[in-house]
């Protein structure tokens, strides 16, 4: 999952990675696209023949209001955006069996593809036999798509049409692959010809994003921008060059998992850890570590980190107080990413076990000394993931008085100010609560009251991400309460604080739990555990409906409840 600013933490649900679209006025974009569509419709009527005899007439139409005709990258951006949109729309119409629209859009797609090929050939300084072959394959598939969709218009038998639909779908898929390969190859040559300036890298990211959106790109063929950047980082000993190049590499990581895989395979992890092992680049550690956290959202990145002893490097950074808080926070973000329970490869990080005690100790210290909510969030997220990683971590946390540190932080609004942070805290408490000795520490630090407050977690902004975070806080708070209530002292304290009343309210009122089934199940389990210790705290109706029946029957009863507005 992703943090604001592009960080990836799987224990946190935040808005996903952004697609970097071209930043232009919407009306201007519509007018430019209208010219493209109008030109394309005219070409369809004239059997795909250009309107004007002038060679640069089409280029003038495409690049109107934008860069001059000598800018092949911008040309690729414009045509690439139109073609990828057409491919997606054809797929949608095909799923709806709207064959007339599929055919007309296929003809239009052919026109766009032909225009892109001819226009790029006219302005590009690069051409090759390989590119010519891919162009030929692309146009053949375009013609094949137009022909087969035209035949589908004449077929009335549903069984025959169904078999032809599979053929159209396969052709469309192959066409998309050829289009993605052509874009990537053209981009490779343009970036190699130039010097990988920031503008061109932004363009490369957008084109790669178009390919990813339409499932066009091939993750096995390298993106030249990432290759060039990794080589530049690896070879540079200039701090300013390295800073600029690392920033550009981070921008590429924000385009999604496919590019992160390519960067990892091209040696991006190795190059970034090389930076983090040189004292001369200390001021670049935060930027390099932030980029590493992004790359390690994929298994290939974690594999590469393991190969270069990255965990040992992270442990050294976290335990070295001479590093800035920002550097140690970014190192914590990498730890959080590589220990994510959603990445199966993390369970095989043998090197992590060797350094786990040092890392856990350093993370607790970072939580205790955090000067901001973001630093605390990164450190606590790393600890939360580590408690999933190995049960021994919970015992370490107990010995390090982690419960006291975390519960004290909850009263500090500067460190704990969002449901995302409370999600990390309650995750740690829930995983630690399996230990018997945890209950006494919870009572000593007034932890039951804090858990009670988490059962009432409410979103402030109402965004989907924040609502989901509040649901997780409520669910994990109920789970923690259920586990801790094995201890009679905890159960009695929970009843004294009216936890049972709140649990009943969450079960019976869907709006209180945002209609979450996960919260409902957790609350029913906690209520039943408390009722086993203190049955006198329940009314007869609550006992008969929420405790006495089977759990599944109580769940069905509560999940089907409708609130009364009378």
From TrEMBL:
One of its GO terms (molecular function) is cytoskeletal anchor activity. One of its GO terms (cellular component) is apical cortex. InterPro entries: ARM-like, ARM-type_fold, Armadillo, Insc_C, INSC_LBD, INSC_LBD_sf, Inscuteable. This is INSC spindle orientation adaptor protein. It comes from the Eukaryota. Residues 79-194, 227-566 form the Protein inscuteable homologue C-terminal domain. SMART domains: ARM. Residues 22-68 form the Protein inscuteable homologue LGN-binding domain.
């Amino acid at each position: 999952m992703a943090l604001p600013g592009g960080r990836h933490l799987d224990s946190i649900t935040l808005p996903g990675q952004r697609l970097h679209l071209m930043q232009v006025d919407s009306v201007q974009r519509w007018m430019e696209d209208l010219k493209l569509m109008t030109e394309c419709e005219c070409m369809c009527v004239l059997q795909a023949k250009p309107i004007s005899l002038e060679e640069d007439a089409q280029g003038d139409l495409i690049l109107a209001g934008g860069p001059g005709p000598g800018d092949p990258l911008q040309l690729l951006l414009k045509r690439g955006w139109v073609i990828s949109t057409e491919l997606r729309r054809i797929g949608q119409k095909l799923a709806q069996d709207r064959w007339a629209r599929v055919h007309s859009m296929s003809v239009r797609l052919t026109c766009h593809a032909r225009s892109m090929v001819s226009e790029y050939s006219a302005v590009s300084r690069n051409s090759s036999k390989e590119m010519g072959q891919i162009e030929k394959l692309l146009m053949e598939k375009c013609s094949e798509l137009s022909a087969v969709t035209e035949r589908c218009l004449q077929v009335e038998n549903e069984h025959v049409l169904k078999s032809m639909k599979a053929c159209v779908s396969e052709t469309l898929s192959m066409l998309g692959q050829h289009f993605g390969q052509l874009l990537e190859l053209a981009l490779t040559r343009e970036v190699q010809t130039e010097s990988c300036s920031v503008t061109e890298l932004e363009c490369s990211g957008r084109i790669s994003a178009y390919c990813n959106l339409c499932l066009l790109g091939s993750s096995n063929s390298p993106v030249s921008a990432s290759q060039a950047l990794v080589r530049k980082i690896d070879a540079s000993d200039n701090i300013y060059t390295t800073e600029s190049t690392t920033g550009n590499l981070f921008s590429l990581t924000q385009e999604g998992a496919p590019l992160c895989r390519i960067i990892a395979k091209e040696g991006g992890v190795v190059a970034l850890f090389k930076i983090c092992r040189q004292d001369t680049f200390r001021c670049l550690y935060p930027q390099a570590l932030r980029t590493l956290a992004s790359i390690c959202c994929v298994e290939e990145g974690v594999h590469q980190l393991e190969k270069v002893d990255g965990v040992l490097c992270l442990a050294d950074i976290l335990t070295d107080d001479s590093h800035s808080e920002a550097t140690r926070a970014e190192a914590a973000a990498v730890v959080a990413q590589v220990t994510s329970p959603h990445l199966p490869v993390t369970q095989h990080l043998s090197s992590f076990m060797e350094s786990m005690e040092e890392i856990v100790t350093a993370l607790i210290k970072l939580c205790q000394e955090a000067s901001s909510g973001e630093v605390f969030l990164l450190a606590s997220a790393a600890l939360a993931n580590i408690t999933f990683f190995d049960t021994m971590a919970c015992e370490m946390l107990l010995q390090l008085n982690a419960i006291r540190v975390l519960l004290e932080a909850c009263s500090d609004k500067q460190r704990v100010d969002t449901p995302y942070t409370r999600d990390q805290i309650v995750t740690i408490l829930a995983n630690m609560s399996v230990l018997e000795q945890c209950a006494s520490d919870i009572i000593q630090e007034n932890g039951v009251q804090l858990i009670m407050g988490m059962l009432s977690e409410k979103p402030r902004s109402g965004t989907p991400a924040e609502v989901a975070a509040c649901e997780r806080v409520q669910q994990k708070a109920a789970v923690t309460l259920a586990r801790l209530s094995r201890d009679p002292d905890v159960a009695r304290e929970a009843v004294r604080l009216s936890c049972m009343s709140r649990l009943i309210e969450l079960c019976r009122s869907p709006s209180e739990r945002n209609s979450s089934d996960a919260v409902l199940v957790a609350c029913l389990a906690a209520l039943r555990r408390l009722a086993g210790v203190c049955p006198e705290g329940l009314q007869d109706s609550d006992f008969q409906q929420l405790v006495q029946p089977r759990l599944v029957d109580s769940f069905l009863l509560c999940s089907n409840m409708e609130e009364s507005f009378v």
